[in-house]
Amino acid sequence: MTDQTHHDFQARSPRSQTQRLDRARQQEIFFGVAAITRPDGKIEVGFCAHDGTYSMDFAMHCIEAKRDAAKTLSDFVIMRVKEYQNVRNVKCLGAGISKAAHDISPDLPARMWAELDIPTLEFERNPVEGDIITGEVDVDEEADAMARKCVVMYGPQKQPLLQVGFLNEVSVDAAGHAILCTLEQYRNTVRKTTWDATMYYAERLKKRGIRMAFLNATPQGGGVALMRHALVRLARLLGVEMKWYVPRPKNEVFRITKTNHNILQGVSEPDERLSADQTEMIKNWIHSTAKREWVRKRGPLAKVEDGGAHILFVDDPQMPDVVPLAKEIEPNRPVLYRSHIQVRADLVDGAPDSPTAEVFDWLYSRIKEADLFIAHPVRDFVPKLVEPQKVAYLPATTDWLDGLNKELRFADSRYYLDIYNAHCLESSQPQLAFPARDYIVQIARFDPSKGIDTVIRSYGELRRKYYKDTPVHQTPQLCIAGHSSIDDPDASAMFVKTMDLIENEYPDLASDISVMRLGPIDQELNVLMSNAKICLQLSTREGFEVKVSEALHKGIPVIVTRAGGIPLQVEDGKSGFLVDTGDYEKVAEYMYQLFIDRDLYAEMSGYAAAHVSDEVSTVGNMLSWLYLADTMTREDGKKLETNGAWINDLAREGAGIPYEEGEPRLPRHYKT
């Protein structure tokens, strides 16, 4: 590759300042990238560095692409952007790329995200701006325009703004401008069997033009939203029509639905009940959004002949009233309900006057018309009231390519740790001393069911019993962190309870326990998980909690409770340790073993990373949903009766691709 530099970046820092900057937090900037192919086959490339207010530097190059123009351009852009960041000690928050540059190098945006941690947004030049004229000035000006367009897509959290558009459809990845992954990258996250089965159903659905729609309460913050962003992203790459809708937010309703959530899990206050007025408020909330947005032409609940979805997935116990409404409009359209929390079936079945039974009776009266009841793969999560032939199992999943899980460069890892410690400083919380000191982490929402008190007691036991004579600087710290969801009003109260416990019972350890509610930056949680020595998940009630699989995928040994679907993900003594809920003494014992026995740690870490099932990945999740969409929208009128089967098993069987010997698979027939 020959590079003719027409104009190089001019901004420079004195060596002494650069050395000081190496020890400081990086300046945050944006990039613009534009490229055109000249008649002689050479590629003109323009760069613009932007500080969020105004352009601060630019460069123009002409490169010769003798063979592979796509790779030549992507290699060159990656090299130049990386060099600019390293030399000037800056962190690029986002990049705008011209459509012409993306057309030349289709993999460039995904490489920017994977290799440099830069979300890259594609923009087309508006026709009113005039034609693109080949020449140095045009590529320079267009790069500047790309940087400016990128800047306006970002919000105060320094992330692309979450967008909910027409019909309250969630506009994933900045309405499609952000390009984070390629289909080939997704293919490489799973085994060939999983990929082939997924493609089998994707091709069938594309040929038939099937429209799928997901509906849940919130577009950001919880596990459901994380899964849905990834699923819609992959659907775009596959070319299948999948859309996602949310109702208009209403805080008064979220307080009710969060209480219902706690009641169903059996972690609510004893006197909390669901009233008739509250059920009416929930119904009115759903109906108001549906009538304004979803039942109109081309809305998800519209009749199929009017552009509505062929199949609906209701993924939230907050929105049961969608089911009867959808069936009233289009009786023969399949509507599937997913129960994504741990329901205390023992309280529903064994205590008919309990708050749990009352809430589930109300819930089931709304969803009983659903064609399937999809639950986390634990039989005890399904009350007897649910018709057995409608029960199917599907685990929660995660995306190996998103900000929560992708591998970060050392420089980016340091950047996000610096951000975390800056947030700690602002909140008067202890900072992490990593890498000087190891730390233990639990990443979860601040929720009554997450066992945060057990986490603190376990750490207290570890420090007071096993490290009582060890200098403080040689002991591990504890980090408890998590995102917040807009439909979770309990988080603030739980945070206060957590701090009270530390201050009242563990004041001697308070300076080593870092407790933080974080914003929507996924990489911040990623770096906390990736650098931890041990990951805890000590929930008392749990649906599945895929954070466990995320830790295992990184090779981080876990210590988890036998709660809900958590044990499905861990092989006791091989990839982690299982303990009874509340047994903080055993947790401390296992933590100490992992700290002092290097061979045990290395063996467990290696086993964990190599034995994560495809079922907990985005592609594995897509396989199950595509199978359901294909099977339940066939014109033969044959009803699908699942009878407690795992959807993944049915999908593999339907595609004629059975599990191979030794292929990692979550345990079946787990009861409790």
Secondary structure layout:
Elements (H helix, E strand, L loop, with lengths): L1 E6 L7 H7 L5 E11 L5 E8 L4 E10 L4 H20 L1 E9 H6 L3 H9 L3 E4 L12 H16 L11 E2 L5 E2 H4 L7 H5 L4 H17 L2 E5 L7 H16 L2 E5 L5 H15 L10 H19 L16 E4 L7 H8 L5 E5 L5 H6 L4 H13 L4 E4 L15 E3 L16 H17 L12 E5 L8 H15 L10 E7 L7 H15 L7 E6 L3 H9 L3 E4 L9 H7 L4 E4 L14 E4 L4 H13 L1 H13 L7 H15 L12 E2 H9 L17
Parallel strand pairs: 2-5, 5-6, 9-10, 9-11, 11-12, 12-13, 13-14, 14-21, 15-16, 15-18, 16-17, 18-19, 19-20
Antiparallel strand pairs: 1-4, 2-3, 3-4, 7-8
Family: Belongs to the glycosyltransferase group 1 family. Glycosyltransferase 4 subfamily.
Protein name: Trehalose synthase
Organism: Aureobasidium pullulans (Black yeast)
Describe it.
By secondary structure, the protein is an alpha/beta fold. The protein has three domains: 2-154, Nucleotidyltransferase, domain 5 (2-Layer Sandwich), CATH 3.30.420.40; 193-309 and 333-372 and 619-655, Glycogen Phosphorylase B (Rossmann fold); 411-615, Rossmann fold, CATH 3.40.50.2000. It has a seven-stranded parallel beta sheet. Helix 19 (547-553) links the parallel strand 18 and strand 19. Helix 8 runs parallel beside helix 22 (618-632). The longest helix has 20 residues, at 69-88. The chain is globular, with a radius of gyration of 26 Å. The termini are far apart. Mean pLDDT is 93; it is low at 16-21 and 132-136.
